[in-house]
Design a protein that fits this description.
The complex is a heterodimer. By secondary structure, chain A is an alpha/beta fold. Chain A contains 10 helices and 13 strands. Chain A has helices at 47-54, 92-103, 110-117, 133-145, 163-179, 191-197, 215-222, 233-242, 264-273, 288-296; strands spanning 7-18, 21-32, 36-41, 62-67, 77-80, 151-155, 183-187, 200-205, 208-214, 224-230, 246-249, 256-259, 278-285. Chain A is elongated, with a radius of gyration of 24 Å. Chain B is mainly α. Chain B has a domain at 208-326. Chain B has helices at residues 2-13, 16-41, 59-70, 73-94, 97-103, 108-140, 150-176, 181-202, 208-227, 233-242, 245-249, 254-263, 268-271, 293-301, 309-313, 322-350, and strands spanning 42-44, 50-52, 289-291, 319-321. The longest helix of chain B is centred in the middle third of the chain and has 33 residues, at 108-140. The radius of gyration of chain B is 25 Å and the shape is globular. Chain B starts with a helix and ends with a helix. Classes of the chains: A alpha/beta, B mainly alpha. The A-B interface holds A 18, 52, 55-59, 71-79, 81-89, 94, 98-99, 101-104, 143-144, 153 and B 2-4, 6-7, 10-11, 14, 91, 95-97, 99-106, 352-354.
């Protein structure tokens, strides 16, 4: 089962059905060691299900899940799937003590270190049930990181957090990855946040991974994209084609979209010479959201 | 498994409900023993007034009261066990900690068994506290305890083992569902039904051999009456039909309920005359064997037929020593405990955790 190929996790043709409903359809992907691996997909695409399968909560109907590290034993994997698994009637410290006992760890100062790391060291005897959503999420992450697992699985860890909470959790995860070398698999609907965090992405659609890319590949995939607003899109297309630019008219809107870097002044001057009026030009680089929408057809919400 | 057991014991120690029930097990038997003392000390003056006299109970009566008080947990514990087990395990599931255990690398078998063992131990601890403080209550009230050597302990231990079957059942129910409400309702419903079911099953406890022995004995006595001219042939035949082996065993229903009685522990309460409403007014006798001859003699007497109780009690299947019954119930309990635990684990293993 052990894999030394440099991958932390290898998922091969995993299928999962609930009754007749097939949620995962031959899903395959590989998580590189030391990466922050983002799972991107719309609601019901299968992100949470694959995370449950990876973390051992559910068994796949078929397919293989291989780990690139010795995952036998206790505390090798930490996970926060959907909601934090914490006792609402216990304090943050008591919850961590229970997690330590669960993992067979010695109850020592490292509990205080984790509490400090997740910024809950000043909560005292306050019960977790009275924590804010952000505090609960942080405690959930703290529970998951107890015992320094090799891999952390986080499903929507920033869901429902306020902007400050999002920044706190993002910072926490980056430090875990950087300082403790943990490989993190994470899913989130907030693609702008995910793009700031993840080093690799898997795009999940209808129970399968449609593409795996790195952050660089996302950035380079579409490069720069410019939208021209003109009363004469056909005339503008002729100008752009003459310049040898990759362009097309967007159906319905009449916007002329141009991919790649070009000299805007040349285009505007030439268009003016041809009598084509350009009302406005907007230029942007391809981001994760654009990449995702282009990939799955624009219906998704991440 | 050791890690998880340590986990469960720590969690139980910090559980308020556990301590509330433990406190109940301390206070209630002492209160009941004091109540018995009061009831048996009450006397009526010639003028019709009440006064407390000196307690004057025979050794057999003391043994009987000791038995009643020390085993009252059998009727009282199931509802507490149902509530505690379902809420305790339910919280683990609703708060998601059971997921933590699986993610941490514990097998589902370890998770299930650690809870099963912990719940069984909780049951044992409560029962032992109840018995110990029952003895203290009897002692301070001057009623006993008279433990009849090891016999009483053997019966109490058997009662605890029989209760452990319920503990396994409640654990399995709690693990079969994702939320807390359904297991709590199911387990409470079960405890409400079980007492009635036990009584019903207990009514069909008589073995076929005992019924046959009675039929034979009754038939001989009736024939003697016919010979002596005390009754006609027609009367004799009608009485023999009314007192047939099947009739005395409970009729056709015996064929349904007796196998249930034999296969399960449901007849325990009835066989051992465990504390219940009837127990409080029953005869003050501590018996060594489960004996049908008393009821049979009474039954025959209602048909104006006299049976020799001495001869009847020696007949095949009429009585079974309680020591034998204890062994039977322990064996049945162990088998049911293993079966229910196995079935509960299979259900839990097949369940997707969310």
């Amino acid at each position: 089962m052990e894999d030394t190929s440099g991958y932390m996790l290898k998922v091969t043709d995993v299928c999962k059905s609930y009754g007749k409903h097939e949620v995962l359809k031959k899903m395959s992907f590989e998580v590189p060691k030391g990466s922050i691996y983002g799972l991107v997909g719309r609601n019901g695409a299968g992100k949470t299900t694959i995370m449950r399968v990876i973390s051992g909560l559910q068994k796949p109907t078929s397919g293989k899940v291989e780990y690139g590290f010795n995952h036998k034993g206790y505390g090798k994997i930490g996970a926060l799937v959907e909601l934090p698994s914490i006792y609402s009637s216990k304090s943050a410290r008591e919850n961590l003590i229970f997690q330590y006992i669960n993992l067979g760890l010695k109850i020592d100062d490292s509990i205080d270190e984790i509490l400090k790391f997740i910024a809950l060291d000043k909560t005292g005897k306050k019960k977790a049930g009275r924590f804010s959503l952000g505090m609960r999420q942080r405690l959930g992450i703290g529970m998951a990181m107890a015992g320094n697992p090799d891999m952390l699985i986080l499903d929507e860890p920033i869901n429902g957090l306020d902007p400050q909470g999002i920044i706190e959790v993002r910072d926490l995860l980056q430090r875990l990855n950087r300082e403790k070398g943990m490989t993190i698999i994470i899913s989130s609907h907030i693609l702008s946040e995910l793009s700031k965090l993840a080093t690799n992405f898997a795009f999940v659609e209808d129970g399968t991974v449609v593409r795996e890319v790195t952050t660089e590949e996302v950035e380079n995939a579409g490069g720069v994209q410019s939208d021209f607003f003109s009363a004469d899109p056909q005339g503008l297309m002729a100008v752009l084609k003459a310049k040898g630019l990759d362009s097309k008219i967007e159906e319905g809107t009449g916007i002329v979209r141009v991919k790649g870097v070009f000299n805007l002044t040349d285009v505007v001057v030439e268009a003016s010479r041809q009598g084509v009026n350009i009302a406005r030009v907007s230029t942007r680089e391809t981001d994760l959201e654009t990449y995702f929408i282009n990939l799955v057809g624009g219906r998704g919400n991440g | 498994m050791g890690k998880l057991l340590r986990f469960e014991f720590r969690r139980i120690r910090s559980n308020l409900f556990f301590w509330i029930i433990a406190l109940y097990c301390v206070v209630w038997p002492i209160f009941v023993a004091s109540f018995y003392r009061l009831v048996f000390s009450l006397s009526i003056t010639e003028e019709g007034g009440l006064y407390l006299s000196q307690l004057n109970l025979s050794a057999d009566e003391k043994k009987y009261i000791t038995w009643l008080i020390l085993t009252a947990f059998f009727a009282e514990m199931p509802k507490f066990m149902a509530l505690f087990t379902c809420l305790y395990i339910g919280k683990d599931q609703s708060d998601g900690f059971v997921r933590n255990k699986i993610i941490s690398g514990h097998s589902r078998l370890s998770v299930f068994m650690s809870n099963n063992i912990a719940q069984s131990l909780v049951c044992i601890v409560w029962c032992v506290i109840y018995v110990c403080f029952g003895m203290l209550g009897l002692k301070i009230n001057g009623i006993g305890p008279i433990l009849n050597g090891g016999e009483m302990f053997m019966r109490i231990a058997t009662a605890i083992v029989v209760l452990l079957v319920l503990s396994a059942l409640f654990t399995s129910i709690a693990f079969a569902f994702r939320n807390r409400a359904i297991p709590v309702v199911l387990a409470i419903l079960f405890t409400m039904v079980i007492s009635g079911v036990s009584m019903a099953v207990g009514m069909f406890s008589m073995p076929k051999a005992a019924g046959d022995s009675y039929e034979k004995s009754f038939g001989t006595a009736v024939e003697l009456n016919v010979e002596k001219g005390l009754m006609s042939r027609e009367q004799a035949d009608a009485l023999k039909k009314q007192n047939s082996s099947e009739a005395v065993r409970g009729g056709k229903a015996w064929y349904i309920f007796h196998p249930v009685y034999q296969a399960t522990t449901a007849g325990f309460q009835s066989d051992f005359k465990m504390p219940n409403g009837i127990g409080l007014v029953a005869e003050m006798e501590y018996k060594d064997k489960l004996d049908y001859s008393d009821d049979m003699q009474l039954n025959a007497l209602m048909s104006n037929v006299m049976l020799d109780k001495e001869a009847l009690s020696k007949m095949d299947g009429i009585s079974t020593a309680y020591s034998t019954k204890c062994i039977e119930y322990v064996v049945k309990s162990v088998i049911w405990y293993a079966f229910i635990t196995g079935a509960g684990f299979i259900l839990f293993k097949r369940r997707d955790l969310f």
